[in-house]
Specification:
442 residues, 5 helices, 3 domains, Immunoglobulin-like, 10-stranded mixed β-sheet
C-alpha cells in the first residue's frame, strides 16, 4: 500500500488533531530561503530550506544535501517532533515521495547519486512510520539531485510538537519551494590563434547552445524557462547567470562596460554586474534578474511568443562608451536590492553622502529588517580607497560619509552579511551576498 494512503488512514483514528491556517510559500531559482511565515495555533512559523552545494559540476557525481528547518518566526527556536511529507519533482518527473520525522525539528537529507532505484537508509518512527535517524541526517541513494536545474519541493507538515499531534490530511500545512542547483559549463573561447578557457554557471537551469562569435566578441547561450506570467507573479523568482573570462583575454576583459541582453531586450543597471576583483585570473560578469525584471519581460508578447520556452542571453564588451555611477544594484546571492543616491549628485572629489536603501529583490517589497553590511570602494587596479565594516542599516536605510580622492571610475561593493528581522531574536544569515557597481567622479 502507498505510504501516503497508509498515513491518511492512520489520521482517521487519531483524536489529538491540530488545525491550522498555514499559507503556501513559493520560490523559484534560489538555492536557500526562508519561506513566508504562517500561523499555527498561537505561533507564527516559517520553513527554511537549502540545497548544498548550490553548484553541481556537469557530469560529476556529487553528494548533495537538502536541509529543512521549521521554526518559530518570533523566537527563531526550532519546532520539534516534525513529520515532513516530502515530494520532489523535476519538471513532470517524480523523484521522491516519502515521510520523514525529526525529533529535534531540523532534518538533513544526504542524496548520493546512483542510477538504480531510490533507496532511503534509516530507521522508522513507530507511530506514523516516517524515516528518521538519531543524527538528524538521512541518506537517500538514487538519481534525485543528480544534475543542475530547477527542482520542485512540496513539503507537507503532517505533525508537530508531539508524535501523536497530527493534522487532518486536508488541513496539513503545505509549503512549495522551487529551488535551483546550478549548472556549470566550461569551454574555450577561440580568438585568432589563441584559446581562452571560460566558465559559465547557470544558477537557475541547464545551459544550452553556448556560442562565441569572435567578430564582435559576443557570447551567447540559452536556458530553459517557463514564461507563464501567472506562474511568475505567484512566486518569488530569481535568475542568476555568471560568466568567467580569463583576464589574459585582454580584448574582452579590459572593458568595464558590457552590452547584455535577454531575449533581445537590453539588460542594464542592477541586472548586469561586473566583478574584476573576486578572482585574480578572471573577470566575472553576472546577469541578475529579479521578479520585477522577469515580469516585465514576460508581459512582452513578442518576447514570449519567440522564446521557445527559454531565456536567451548575449554579452559583449563595448568600446568608447562612458561609464555611469550605479544607482541600484542587486546582490549575487540572497536576493537583496540596494538603491543608492548621492549628495551631491553626481559625486565629487572630497566629501559626499551616500544613502543606501535595502529592499527584497525577490518580491520587490520593502525589507522589514536591519541590515548588517560592509562597504568597499576600489580603483580599477584593485587598490582599496575606502573600507567600512559592520555597518547597520536601521530598517534597511543607511547614510554614509564618503570621501573620494580624485577623478576616475571606481568599483563599489556592498556586502550584505546578515539581516535582523524585526521582532525576531536571531540573525538571518541565509541572505548573504555582494552587490557590485561603479562610482564615477568627473
Amino acid at each position: 500500500m502507498d505510504k501516503y494512503i497508509q498515513i491518511t488512514i492512520a489520521f482517521l483514528f487519531v483524536t489529538g488533531i491540530l488545525l491550522s491556517n498555514f499559507q503556501h510559500g513559493f520560490s523559484d531559482g534560489i538555492f536557500q530561503e526562508n519561506l513566508p511565515p504562517a500561523t499555527v495555533g498561537n505561533r507564527i512559523a516559517s520553513l527554511y530550506t537549502k540545497i548544498s552545494p548550490p553548484i553541481l559540476t556537469s557530469g560529476a557525481k556529487q553528494n548533495a544535501l537538502f536541509q529543512l528547518r521549521l521554526f518559530d518566526s518570533k523566537s527563531g527556536n526550532n519546532i520539534t517532533n516534525v513529520n515532513y511529507f516530502l515530494t520532489i519533482l523535476k519538471g513532470d518527473k517524480l523523484l521522491l515521495r516519502e515521510l520523514f520525522y525529526s525529533k529535534d525539528g531540523p532534518l538533513t537529507l544526504k542524496f548520493e547519486p546512483n542510477q538504480g532505484p531510490v533507496t532511503v537508509y534509516g530507521s522508522t518512527e513507530p507511530f506514523l512510520g516516517g524515516w528518521t535517524s538519531d543524527t538528524g541526517e538521512i541518506t537517500v541513494r538514487g538519481p534525485v539531485l543528480s544534475e543542475g536545474g530547477v527542482y520542485h519541493f512540496s513539503i507537507e507538515i503532517f505533525g508537530i510538537d508531539n508524535v501523536r499531534n497530527i493534522f487532518v490530511p486536508e488541513k496539513a500545512p503545505r509549503f512549495d519551494s522551487y529551488l535551483s542547483i546550478g549548472d556549470v559549463f566550461a569551454t574555450d573561447l577561440t580568438y585568432g590563434t589563441q584559446k581562452f578557457n571560460s566558465t559559465l554557471i547557470s544558477y537557475y537551469d541547464k545551459i544550452r547552445n553556448f556560442t562565441f562569435e569572435p567578430e564582435d566578441l559576443r557570447v551567447l547561450w540559452t536556458m530553459p524557462f517557463d514564461w507563464n506570467v501567472s506562474r511568475i507573479r505567484a512566486q518569488n523568482i530569481f535568475v542568476h547567470e555568471e560568466l568567467k573570462v580569463p583576464k589574459s583575454f585582454s580584448e574582452f576583459s579590459n572593458s568595464s562596460i558590457f552590452n547584455g541582453t535577454v531575449n533581445g531586450q537590453p539588460v542594464v543597471g542592477r541586472s548586469l554586474a561586473v566583478d574584476p576583483f573576486s578572482s585574480e585570473k578572471a573577470l566575472i560578469i553576472h546577469f541578475l534578474l529579479n521578479k520585477n525584471d522577469i515580469v516585465k519581460l514576460a508581459e512582452n508578447n513578442e518576447i514570449v511568443s519567440n522564446s521557445n520556452n527559454s531565456m536567451k542571453f548575449t554579452i559583449l564588451p563595448l568600446a568608447n562608451q562612458s561609464q555611469k555611477t550605479s544607482l541600484d544594484m542587486v546582490t549575487d546571492t540572497g536576493g537583496i536590492h540596494t538603491f543608492l543616491s548621492w549628495n551631491p549628485n553626481p559625486p565629487v572629489i572630497g566629501t559626499n553622502t551616500l544613502n543606501i536603501n535595502f529592499s527584497d529583490a525577490l518580491s520587490g517589497s520593502r525589507l522589514n529588517a536591519d541590515v548588517n553590511y560592509d562597504l568597499s570602494i576600489r580603483t580599477h587596479k584593485g587598490e582599496e580607497i575606502i573600507r567600512k565594516n559592520n555597518i547597520t542599516a536601521i530598517k534597511g536605510i543607511s547614510n554614509q560619509s564618503i570621501s573620494l580622492p580624485s577623478k576616475g571610475i571606481f568599483n563599489l561593493e556592498v556586502e550584505v552579511k546578515s539581516l535582523k528581522v524585526l521582532n525576531l531574536t536571531s540573525l538571518d544569515t541565509t541572505r548573504k551576498g555582494i552587490a557590485r557597481g561603479f562610482v564615477v567622479v568627473s
